[in-house]
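We read letters as residues; the fold follows as tokens. A sample entry reads:
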Amino acid sequence: MAGRIRADVEAVQGHDPAARSFTEIVLTYPGLHAVWAHRLAHRQWRRGHEFAARIVSATARVLTGVDIHPAATIGERFFIDHATGVVIGETAVIGDDCTIYQGVTLGGTSLEKGRRHPTLGDRVVVGAGAKVLGPISVGSDARVGANSVVVRDVPAGAVVVGVPGQIISRGETGASDSAYDDQKLFLDPVARSLESIMARLDEIERRSGHEAVAGVRPSAEGIWQGDDFSI
């Protein structure tokens, strides 16, 4: 038990540059408290003490703002950053060394019994406000961008952004453990589509001898700007 507690604290130290000391983390990090409470509740659940397990998880929800069903399966060194508004459903499975941020939901899309929540592989990162829904699988080393809505399987090492989630990068296993250090996570798939359409329109206009529409162009980052038009 002592080794697991230390591993959980070290996971916080490795993911949060604001963490200063072992004592500070143990006493003031609600995400860590939520994980510890879940470990206790999950143990009670597996022993058949389901009511006691629900009491523990309900108390933890009030104290930490994190709602984890006691039947959910969570691996080692799980880190919840900021720990507000996180919901993890009953049949969710989370691998080792995963990180999720505030406002994340690992939820279901069905009222049927059985597996109805996501399965995350190892080292998965889910950005703030993202929703991963249904009995889908998110492969190891995948990253889900902030505010994305993911309802389909995600391959290992992929980067997913948007609503609904779109894969914008594949196969980058061993990627960074941050959901925010890759500029691709901030690109809007809709803006990128518009950029492609406008580029094609410019090409057609040049071929037909007409000048392209002035004042409306995307920046290098895919952000549209103009006198009366911006995305």
Q: What stands out?
A: The chain has two domains: 2-179, 189-225. The chain has a mean pLDDT of 83. Helices lie at 2-15, 22-28, 30-46, 50-64, 189-208.
